[in-house]
Amino acid sequence: MLKIHQHFIRTFILIFAAVLLTLSVITYFWSKNIYIHQIEKNLVQNIDTLSIVLTDLNNVETIIKNLKEKLRLRITIIDEKGNIIAESDENKDIMENHANREEIIQANEFGIGKIIRFSSTLNKKLLYIVKKVTINEKTYYIRMADYINKITDNFIKLSAQIFAFSALFLIIAFIATYFISLKIKNETESILNFLTELSNKSPMYSLNSNYTVEFNKISKLLNKVAGKLSKRQKQKAKQTAKLKIANRQKDEIISALSHEFKNPIAIISGYSETILNDKDMPQVMKEKFLSKIHSNAIKMSHIIDKLRLTLKLEEGKQELVLIPLSVNKIINEIISDLKDKYKDREIILEGNDITLKVDETLISMAISNLIENALKYSEDEVIVKITENCISIKDKGIGIEKNELEKINKKFYRISNNGWNNSLGLGLFIVQSILHLHNFSLEISSEFNEGSEFSIKY
Fold first, then answer.
1. Among 197, 230, 263, which residue terminates a domain?
2. Count of the separate structural domains present in the chain
3. Of 350, 346, 354, residue with least CA distance to 326
């Protein structure tokens, strides 16, 4: 396993070698292309000059020999049939016909041809440029060739220079890297020492490092950790306080349950005791008392059912029976049931009917809960509106404060300020859970003392 500064140096060397190799390859091909382009340009100019000067082919051998000495180029004159008329480097009589050479074919078609080819005659690679010219009303091909091995020689010289500069740069970079790695080593050792003391006890000093932004951030974070460890006792006290709050919340839940059961139990106990003690009670009064006992027993059963449903929904054990249903029909049945309980209140249904695939029992429970809440906490009419995207229940009641809106859907959360009381705190939790099973959502908007709107989005 290497140290940080060793990793740094090794990575630097690998990157440097990769960059050097890439630059070398790019430089080689770049300089080669430039060189070949320049040779091509010079050859074309020389051919144009020769074609102007060359008016008599009787002494062509002498002319191209002299040009060979001055220009150091290979020059060949070829007639229209591909026969060699004159050659600067070899005996023309032993050279084969050039009619099928690629550069001659190109020149015949386009006026000029070029190719890079290894010459077995000269045992070197050359760039051949051929131009089609007319001399004494006859067609000839003037071919000139230059050696391109110069690019390799130039590249070797250039590479030597690059490597010399690179070696110097590498030495300087290595020295700089070495000192940087030493500084990093010292910084990391100071951090390790601080961590060692931190693992045993809180350090008696602060860690300071301004060498780099990263080390500075690490030192600040470690100082914060040390500060937090020194406040361990305070944190324990806070945790104890949190546990007390949690226990108090449990007590409040138990209190809420006992409060919900207290009234029905008291009514059932009182009326049943009266019936038992008064043997001569009129039948009408007895039936009235028994009705009260029955209704409160149902109320207790509903509370228990609500608790059981809450557990099922929370544990994901409630099954859905989805069937296509008329939303208008569901809401009208709910309104009919609630009007028996809230005789003096008006519930207005607006919008066109739509069909949704839902669990009738559960969705009825969710919508009924929202409408009944609106009836409980407002005195004006309640408006239920059906649209293509949602069912909204709007009231003009006391509203809900903004700081309570985020908490209202939590299980057992009860709002008691300003008269808004969510009973056991299960109603909206059940509504949310039912809607979640249907892949629906509940949006709540409310203005304090203005009213609230609960929208079921589907």
1. 230
2. 4
3. 354
